[in-house]
Structures are given as C-alpha cells and as structure tokens.
Amino acid sequence: MNILDKIVQEKRKQVQEEIQLYPVQLLERSIYFGSECVSLRKYLLREDKNGIIAEIKKKSPALGAINAHIKTEKLSIGYMQAGASALSVLTDRKFFGGSNADLTTARKFNFCPVLRKDFVISEYQIIEAKSIGADAILLIAAILKKEEIKQFTELAHSLGMEVILEIHAEHELQKLYHKVDIIGVNNRNLETMTIDVSTSVSLAGQIPSGIIKISESGIDDPQIILQLSKLGYNGFLIGSYFMKHPEPEKACAEFIRQINKLKTDGHAA
Questions:
Q1: Counting Cβ atoms within 10 Å, is residue 47 exposed (0-12), middle (13-18) or buried (19+)?
Q2: Is-contact 214 196, C-beta < 8 A?
C-alpha cells in the first residue's frame, strides 16, 4: 500500500466520524453556507497578478514537519499582501497537520479565493468545504472514478464553488468532466512522492484548449513560472518552497518580486 492509498483509507474512516459529529443539517447552518464564493478562475486571469496560489502546509508525508507552528491568520494575510492571487489551505489533519479551522481563519481575514486542499472521496466533504468558507475544491483524478468527478463537480457548482481537477499523467485526462473549472497538473507523483516539473511541460499540450490550467508542486524558481506561462499555464500552486522559510509570507513576496523583475527585464530587452 503506497502513501496515497493510506491517505484515502484514513480519509474514508475520518469522513464517517465527521458525519456523526457534524451532520449535514448542522453544516448547512454555517454563516458561510449561503455566502457568495470568490471566483478562483477570475483571480488567476487578473493581469495585475502572477497566478501564485500560496499554500498553507504545516507538514507533509514527504517532508514531515515543515512549519508546524505557523499562525494561519498572520500567514494568510501576509501571503495576500505579498501579491498572491489566491490561498490554498490543507485541511487534512493526520498527514498534513491542517484543520478546517485553518481554512475558516484564512477566509475570515481575506477577500481572495480560498482553495480547500484535501482528499475528497465523499459528497459530505464538498458540503463541509462550503460550510467552512471554501471558494474552490480539489478533486484528484487518481483516487476518483469518472462518474464521481462529474457528480462531485455538479454538487460543488450547485453550492457556488469552483473545481480543480488534479492530474499527474495523460491517461487521467480520460476522466475529465467538461464542466470542471480548472485542471491542475501535479508535478508530484502521489504514489512515489517524487517531483518532476517536466510533468507540467509534457502535459501542457495534452490539456484541451480553453481550460484554465495550473501547475502544482516543485516550483522553486521564478524562471519556471515564466517557462510554464509560455506553455499556457495560468496558475502556480506553491507550498513547501514558501513554508520551509521561517516567514513564508516574506519568501512569497521575494518570489513574486523576482517574477516581476524578470518580466520587466524581458520586456525591456
């Protein structure tokens, strides 16, 4: 059993526990349940931004503890002040050290789109995502059937949220549902945890035109942003690279400053 299988197994058990503790009727009473979501698609296409989705990730199976005691309020505000287009918040407890409260805190103190990053295997989690303040959810093709992707996308849309479908290999595009809002290419192989940014390069031409696409994992150089932008990528999800710094928001600000400088220098040339 690889790490992805272990995560999904644990997630199924956790969801059943959550349903008992917080039934759907209770989730629907949340102050966020009736609120309008902020469009991640629109923010990724803004010309005054660089498409950076800055992630709050306290630990991971690959790295262990990264920045376990970070304050979500301070970091989320800092990321947005740094110029990020959106926030990604890992809510998985056991493997990533996150919580639903982290996302709600990020939502409370920011007006930008907030992505709930988790391993969705149940409709309950989508309703839960809306109740904690998420604007978008992630669906991972490797752990879902094509019919589930359609079903979960329709439910998310009915609640006003957008959907990122995450793929790692070309064959996973066979599961694409045409109403998915964004395709995310994960440069990390979720079975082996190895990272190769060339995954985004090789898959760029295989993704249907007209769909917004983002690259995830392993992005640690502003030059990569420029390279992938030329291939049609609109967004770049960065977590570990920022989180490994004592003050991730400052690392994000410097990264975005370097992107802008490269763009300016390129135009000047």
A1: exposed
A2: no
Q: What is the mean pLDDT of residues 4-8?
A: 94
In this predicted structure, the answer to whether residue 83 has a pLDDT above a threshold of 50 is yes
Q: Which residues, 6+ apart, have CB-to-CB distance to 4 below 8 Å?
A: 142, 143, 190, 191
Q: Which of 81, 84, 80, 101 is nearest to 92 (CA)?
A: 101
Domain spans of the chain?
3-268
Superfamily of segment(s) 3-268: Aldolase class I (3.20.20.70)
Mean pLDDT along residues 195-223: 95
Tracing tokens 């995954």 back to the chain, one arrives at 199
User: What digits encode the pLDDT tens for the residues 90-131?
Assistant: 999 999 999 999 999 999 999 999 999 999 999 999 999 999
List, in sequence order, every residue forming a beta bridge with 186; answer none if it has no partner: 216
Buried b (16+ CB within 10 A) or exposed e, 174-193: ebbbeebbbbbbbbbbbeee
Q: Are 231 and 211 in contact (CB under 8 A)?
A: no
Q: In terms of Cα–Cα distance, which of 88, 86, 48, 41 is closest to 259?
A: 48
**b/e per residue 234-253 (b: at least 16 CB within 10 A):** bbbbbbbbbbeeeebbebbb
The catalytic residues are 55, 57, 117, 166, 186, 216-217
Choice between 195 and 78, residue whose per-residue pLDDT is larger: 78
Confidence band, pLDDT 50/70/90 cuts, at residue 267? low
For the chain, how big is the Rg over CA atoms in Å? 17
Residue range 45-74, pLDDT digits in tens: 999 999 999 999 999 988 899 998 999 999
**Of 180, 100, 86, 92, whose CA–CA distance to 133 is shortest?**
100
Distance CA 158, CA 161 (A): 8
